[in-house]
Specification:
The structure is a homodimer.
Chain A (H helix, E strand, L loop, with lengths): L3 H23 L6 H39 L2 H36 L3 H37 L7 H44 L11 H38 L5 H24 L10 H28 L6 E2 L5 E2 L1 H26 L4 H10 L3 H14 L2 H32 L1 H23 L4 H49 L20 H42 L12 H80 L9 H43 L1
Antiparallel strand pairs in A: 1-2
Helix pairs in contact in A: 1-4, 1-7, 2-3, 2-5, 2-6, 2-16, 3-4, 3-5, 3-6, 3-13, 3-14, 4-6, 4-7, 4-13, 5-6, 5-15, 5-16, 5-17, 6-7, 6-12, 6-13, 6-14, 6-16, 6-17, 7-8, 7-12, 7-13, 8-9, 9-12, 9-14, 10-11, 10-16, 10-17, 11-16, 11-17, 12-14, 13-14, 14-16, 14-17, 15-16, ...
Chain lengths: ~700, ~700
Amino acid sequence: MNPLYLVVLCGLLSLAYGIWAVISVMGSDAGNKRMQEIAGAIQEGAQAYLARQYTTIAIVGVLIFAIVWWQLSMFAAIGFAVGAILSAAAGFIGMLVSVRANVRTAQAASQSLAAGLGIAFKAGAVTGLLVAGLALLGVAVYYLVLTEYMGFDRADRMVVDSLVALGFGASLISIFARLGGGIFTKGADVGGDLVGKVEAGIPEDDPRNPATIADNVGDNVGDCAGMAADLFETYAVTVVATMVLGAIFFAGTETAAQAMLYPLAIGAACVVTSIIGTFFVRLGSNNSIMGALYKGFIATAVLSLVVLYPVTWYVFGGMDATLTIANGTSFTPLDLYLCGIAGLVVTGLIIWITEYYTGTPYRPVQSIANSSVTGHGTNVIQGLAISLEATALPALVIIAGIIVTFNLAGLFGIAIAVTTMLALAGVVVALDAFGPVTDNAGGIAEMADLPGEVRNTTDALDAVGNTTKAVTKGYAIGSAGLGALVLFAAYTEDLKYFTANSETFTYFQGVGPVEFALSNPYVVVGLFFGGLLPYLFGGIAMTAVGRAASAVVEEVRRQFREKPGIMEGKERPDYGRAVDMLTRAAIKEMIVPSLLPVLSPLVVYFLIYAIAGKNAAFSALGAMLLGVIVTGLFVAISMTAGGGAWDNAKKYIEDGNHGGKGSEAHKAAVTGDTVGDPYKDTAGPAVNPMIKITNIVALLLLAILAH
Amino acid sequence: MNPLYLVVLCGLLSLAYGIWAVISVMGSDAGNKRMQEIAGAIQEGAQAYLARQYTTIAIVGVLIFAIVWWQLSMFAAIGFAVGAILSAAAGFIGMLVSVRANVRTAQAASQSLAAGLGIAFKAGAVTGLLVAGLALLGVAVYYLVLTEYMGFDRADRMVVDSLVALGFGASLISIFARLGGGIFTKGADVGGDLVGKVEAGIPEDDPRNPATIADNVGDNVGDCAGMAADLFETYAVTVVATMVLGAIFFAGTETAAQAMLYPLAIGAACVVTSIIGTFFVRLGSNNSIMGALYKGFIATAVLSLVVLYPVTWYVFGGMDATLTIANGTSFTPLDLYLCGIAGLVVTGLIIWITEYYTGTPYRPVQSIANSSVTGHGTNVIQGLAISLEATALPALVIIAGIIVTFNLAGLFGIAIAVTTMLALAGVVVALDAFGPVTDNAGGIAEMADLPGEVRNTTDALDAVGNTTKAVTKGYAIGSAGLGALVLFAAYTEDLKYFTANSETFTYFQGVGPVEFALSNPYVVVGLFFGGLLPYLFGGIAMTAVGRAASAVVEEVRRQFREKPGIMEGKERPDYGRAVDMLTRAAIKEMIVPSLLPVLSPLVVYFLIYAIAGKNAAFSALGAMLLGVIVTGLFVAISMTAGGGAWDNAKKYIEDGNHGGKGSEAHKAAVTGDTVGDPYKDTAGPAVNPMIKITNIVALLLLAILAH
């Protein structure tokens, strides 16, 4: 039997788990009428937003679908559609579950912490396993269809192009979803806080604030759907790039099929271990929520470590065969297995470092809390200092990962390490997607006037959610950085292939071997150009959040002015208007920055081509891909870690330190948190798909030029 | 006659101008007794700080002097000492003039704006022309001594190594001076403002604030001495690197002497045009201070454009000879002249872009001012957005500069363009060093209770100083980015030379040609490692300022508590203690981050050597040099432009917009300004010498390994 069917089976298992978990969540108590009313408003808003977002993306998508078909092939266009639709589906279904689990979590939290955790985590696990499962299924089934049913050879350009197009479809959804969702959620959060907490002096999630439903909607469309699309993309793109590398490195040998199967097999094995891992999430006797979540993660990681050994054995028919790639490098399946372990270690270290930089008990967060005592300015200075500093250790871990895995098995070793990192996406996303559910549960508890202890329980869950959110972002960006290197390798190998076979690919006639030497000024030009993209992109995204937040402030002020009964609790605010306004703002603001990474590779290529010819243009384009990784990695880590640290410094003060809530230090910490919001939830995480979309557009451009 | 004597003559001319200007400044009225008393305290503090700073650096310097002598040669060690001592002298003399010109500017401002501008600008011009003149003299005289009196061949390794060591000496001073001065000035500024303006509610520069003298001292040691050392270094290092490239590219031909003379000749010509340019700084009938300053800059630029043509003709004996370098590239002296023009254009564009991003009339500053209305958080968000965005256009200008000059005359063309950019350092530094003088003049006017109109005049001068400070930083960083590319080229060319002649340089036996291809993972490792340095460095610098500021806050609070008479104006605060405390803090905090770029190249080289051998280590080290440029350029531009924009957004509100002084918007803008302070005056500008010191240490490491 074709082993791909086993991969598909594992993918289907994740869907089965999802269905079981959804039924289990939906079967629990949905609380009283008031709670259901509020949850209904959140559901309605989130669905309306996502419907509109996907409609907008669909317009861009249909256009690109046509271009891909016209310039490449029908199969590439279908691949693009598969990637886009599955990515959208993972986010949409995850959100549907999330907005139904929130009210049930609030209800369960009124019984016990364990019950609340149980429902929230199960809801998160649906999203997590859908992300990993659908991504795996998408790639595996389409690969199976192309090779088994359409009869293409495994290493045929048609197969490679179609898989890359699948990755592009996923990327396109993820950049829009990350940005649009990020602008919505932080526009609502920042705007709502400014006008509610600061101006009107009412607490967060107070039902009198017209932006409060929008804030809860934002948690779902940004932190749940946006993040799901992001990791779906990272997963799909990395697996595809690893398969492409395998096809190129082992072109014409029997090993090619094994090398292309291996990343899928890793993904399949880890979907199963992730499902098992979810059952390890149980509150211990010490009531540590973080401990419960980590139990699930550690179980998955350890099981994966064990299971990947026989999987490797099965794929390669042993552990000590010598696999030799075209350039002469050779390694054994055992080496590849060790690369996978290195990927797991890198994941663990990045999680640990992120927790250090964003966790309340450690120096970084405490130093921000300390500096809040002397005011807003010093809080922000220290937060920026931490955000800059927080990039160093993750970068060193990535550097070590590159060195170790390259020495084990060359570039293919790096690719396998990243694939293994991402194979854990199921359980990692589960930890993260749990966050918006508990955040919403707290909001519903507040708005529905549930007893204080319910809010305390949801607050405890929410605080952990903040850390897991930061941790997942660190993981997503770390893996994206390494994943982008694999994409860059695919670009250079593809280019090598096309220039070496320029009698077939006539566009490449006379281009000759393309060098990426740093002493070539066009390489430097490409590095600088790539380097500026995350900065420009980040600047536009931050401005967009500021604008959306200002619009919210205006709208809430207007409602307070025109309906004086709201503040007295006698009149119901018009929640829908704030949601609607933010929807329009987010959709409008997401277009330009999303197109920046899509169009930049084309601009750089054709501009340098016009100035200095094809060879220089390919050099500059390749260097640009690496430039965007080099600065993007630092920009993204600094933003997400810094934002998380600011957030928890505020929480640390709210826990009664440095004067607690209402003190001057607390006000300064609120400012820091506000600054960190778009840093960590809009600009920072969106850099991640931005890096990869730049790379994948370059790969597609090569394919189109070769066509 | 050896044309080098003409270069030396031009250098001496700048000293003569300096002496004349000092006499002229010192001859003017030094104001009343109270003013002189205050100025005396500032002088004392600044001298005490610099003496202590230089003593500390001297300890490090003597150690390195010994190492360079031991590992390289006596001449290299002497070169190191020359670079270090001249750089220190430029800063020290500039500061001596600056602290004497401040009180005279205050006195002159009580007569007329033109008189105040005259003295302040003349004082700044002393620093500016000393920087350019001493750097030029240092390089030219030492080159003359080595080749003419010591009899070394021009392209002898001894000459190259000694000149590189001279650059290293300058770099070492500049990183310490930039960081130490930056931490002092911003510690005083942020700490003084927090405790004075915010807590005690007294205005800036109020004599009751014990940190007020320290704040004024800081302007001199940071913005004057620190900046002077920075540009001295950029100038010296760039000229040296261009000469080294010339020696390598034209090795063994007659052109080598011309190519090594040419950068010195450009510097010499532009010192003269800068001196002439200073006389064009005159207040027009419209009373525009910025206009007056720009007249001086434009006159210098236009004169340079004209003069460089005959200079090029003289150096190369015509404009249409064909100069061919070792790799086959050939160009004419006319091409080199055009590269020089490109350098002038890049300078003009960067100045124009920086003014757009930091000037009050334009969108960026106004958008920050607007967002201050909704609070501290939105002010900071918008400021960060602008700081990110502000990197894009300068990067594009640099990219265009690279493409144009490379197409004209290869790497040597890029080097000539940067040399020409920096040849204008005399006049550009003059514009900048004028800032601290007027800033101090305002402080003295306030403390000495001079009539309000005097303060208004000095405030008008100071506002312009803020813009010219930002402009100079943009210029310094832009030229440093391009200059570092020249250093990187010197590294790769040196390495090529050593590996090709490994029978002489036995350390390089078996290393083979070193590749810097991006597909080499050690190159990627180097890029990431280099990339993290500006982030880590920036994080440490920001933390240091926060700590120093907190110490100031504590000290001032203590004085207010222990001497209750201070606030009533009955008791004199102990200014000296604040100065002394900051001195100790700044010196202590500057050591570790300063050593980061010195030691990192060694760590990377020996670590990768241990793991993967010499070839990989040289690749990683080279890539690290480029990595530090790629992220450093963006970090530095974003910090300096963002900080300038925050500062002027505050000024814009203080001019009566959005509620003016004392409004909530103003409070938010003060927060933004506080955040921007260490961004623009400590971390951002210090990244600039950091980039170059990394590069030059790598060059020295090569020389030592070859030895």
